[in-house]
Write a sequence for this structure.
């Protein structure tokens, strides 16, 4: 008789959920497979990791804070699923404002901002429901949704308006399946920083449709001179907002995998969702206990000068890139206002043999050994994203090579 | 006109996935709400966290290994989604055997063993498919499956045979929806350690039905004198095995959230599943980079005496508990062989006013200030689980109080 399992051979398939789950950056980059020019050392402007170049380092006080926890032999046990009270309290104190007050109960810690996004997306949307996400935008939103069978629609950002949201397009995407609107400010990949007025206009759309907002504010406070970061939750007392953030960027430790959710719910709309977030947080118990225990010192004892210097360096780098790339014919440059990225439009009709962003990045690698991500990674063809983190001389050299590349390939 | 969202008020519900997701330990313990006896200090035998009592501490060399990474300023960036090569290599070298060889490509790191289980369960089973899990057994298997809409059936363990698997019952659970068999050895909550012969018998069932095995071996090597831990993968070259483990228990750092998957696939049945695991690992990029970078030293430089002393202390504690509880009328004790737990059967018909495991644990807390988990947390009513980790004098006192409690309540 056939076995009760009905199986007669070892033909195992990955689950449908795994099949659905892809990281588009990985998929596109892995398909590139272009060897760099052996005569030029590779300079990568591809990875959103400020630590790999050696010129951005965490502050020594953060190292000491973690060492202190190691020496205590008291921070090695299981933290509660939502995070240690001292750590949640530290996050609440850091981000509480008079307009949008927070206590430790409004904070959930997670394994990186990605882990926070996974909890938030998983708690707010059913399989088959839709979230609205920005285009161009960070790819992990879709990766997480795909893994859960949650759908998404893109709303457009407008490069001619410093990547502001096209509000009409946003509103046109809304239908009865919409679960929430996700806003990323400051933006990866755009390097844009929204004004309070623009954020209010987005909140107005949310309010009209009773849609909660997920605010991805991992680049909070990372803005250049003349720009102000405004936390979305400060601007509304009616629209419920789940803001996500973490140590990765501002504290320059993406590998530490420390993220958080801030539950802003002054109108009591998230009562049930809050419980849902707590339930989902019990599945894997996200983040490292040493970092949790060190969080009060990391968040509250890192000197302001550290943050200022990070922003100043990023701003200097942005200036260098704009000086060198701003006047290159064939490139449309949108001057970044914060974060650590910049998008460059490729005017393909001005080039003789570069038909797309993917072809641009491939040939740039093959000829100039400069690695960038094609806009397709962010659902935005004919742009490329550059990272502003490499040391100034490297960045300068990379931009010069991009300019040279354009000179060679222009009609 | 009504808004396009169809919504007319802020009535937000958590997602169905969040509703389905529950941690039964949390649910049962939170419902107990019993105040301890104010005249007796509380002793908790409830939490599977060896670090909370102060008598089990990680080895100083592990502290130094992490400090070294902090001082290097080189281990703060994003690790690859599946884990750093040096870390995966360290795990492979630690667990490779001639019968079941491993290389770094066969290792995936995750956020704790729970994170490893989440990847494994998510890669092997579709929503609606079934996994077979032990009863009594660790509750997170069901929590993970519930969050994904994956079903499960329980197979029975037999307390009269040191909690061996009831093989007929296991086989009877198999049907066309079965995706895999999960085996936990050494066991939480049983403290049992299976012989190679018994593991082989389980593998025979898997083989007959072409079902892969998930081996939860987080308590690998934590066995008492006369017992031998056998990794399941060593016993088969045909049944594909995903073994999960981590630093939590053997290295006494559950809060560090470092877990791993070992892909044992000598018959090439997991080709597709392996890709699925890699895809799913890209969603949140699990574990802390400092701990990953320190993993070679943690796994390979911790002295053998550290492991031996942990096991010796646990075994002494098990002896103390058995001496004090073994002859108490009304308790059925199954002598543990490893891990850090022991199950005590409650012969409710011998008690005048203790009708269930939940009532036992509640009254024990109220009268004796001793906290244990009722067997219902592990789907096994009329047993309670005790943790063997507290310092010997505390454990002795707790067992004496349990004995006294039984004396008071026996018919
Ligand atoms: C916009 C945005 N959100 C979230 C993340 C993820 O952050 P984490 O590394 O903490 O998971 C990133 C990382 O690049 C990002 O750019
Ligand atoms: C059998 C078993 N598997 C897995 C785990 C989870 O381990 P981790 O804390 O590394 O997620 C535990 C924790 O108690 C356990 O007992």
């Amino acid at each position: 008789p056939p076995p009760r399992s009905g199986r007669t051979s070892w033909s195992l398939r990955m689950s449908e959920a795994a099949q659905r789950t892809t990281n588009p950056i990985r998929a596109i980059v892995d398909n590139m497979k272009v060897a760099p020019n052996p005569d030029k050392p590779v300079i990568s402007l591809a990875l959103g990791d400020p630590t790999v170049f050696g010129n951005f380092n965490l502050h020594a006080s953060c190292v000491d804070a973690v060492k202190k926890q190691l020496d205590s032999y008291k921070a090695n046990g299981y933290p509660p699923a939502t995070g240690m009270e001292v750590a949640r309290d530290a996050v609440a104190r850091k981000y509480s404002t008079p307009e949008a007050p927070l206590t430790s109960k409004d904070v959930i810690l997670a394994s990186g901002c990605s882990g926070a996004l996974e909890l938030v997306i998983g708690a707010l949307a059913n399989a088959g429901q839709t979230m609205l996400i920005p285009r161009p935008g960070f790819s992990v939103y879709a990766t997480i949704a795909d893994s859960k069978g949650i759908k998404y629609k893109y709303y457009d950002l407008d490069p001619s308006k410093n990547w502001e949201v096209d509000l009409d397009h946003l509103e046109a995407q809304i239908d009865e399946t919409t679960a929430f609107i996700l806003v990323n400010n400051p933006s990866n990949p755009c390097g844009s920083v929204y004004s309070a007025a623009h954020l209010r206009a987005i909140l107005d759309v949310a309010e009209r449709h009773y849609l909660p907002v997920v605010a991805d504010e991992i680049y909070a406070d990372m803005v250049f001179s003349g720009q102000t970061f405004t936390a979305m939750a400060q601007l509304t007392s009616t629209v419920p907002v789940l803001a996500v953030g973490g140590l990765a960027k501002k504290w320059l430790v993406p590998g530490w995998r420390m993220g958080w959710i801030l539950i802003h719910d002054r109108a009591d709309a998230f009562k049930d969702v809050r419980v849902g977030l707590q339930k989902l947080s019990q599945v894997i118990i996200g983040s490292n206990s040493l970092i949790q225990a060190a969080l009060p010192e990391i968040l509250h004892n890192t000197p302001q000068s550290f943050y200022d210097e990070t922003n100043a360096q990023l701003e200097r780098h942005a200036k260098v890139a704009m000086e060198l790339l701003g006047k290159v014919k064939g490139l449309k440059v949108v001057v970044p206002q914060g974060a650590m990225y910049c998008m460059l439009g490729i005017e393909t009709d001005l080039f003789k043999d570069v038909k797309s962003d993917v072809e641009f990045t491939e040939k740039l690698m093959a000829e100039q050994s400069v690695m960038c991500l094609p806009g397709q990674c962010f659902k935005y063809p004919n742009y490329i994203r550059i990272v502003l983190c490499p040391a100034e001389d490297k960045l300068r050299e990379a931009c010069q090579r991009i300019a040279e590349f354009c000179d060679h390939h222009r009609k």
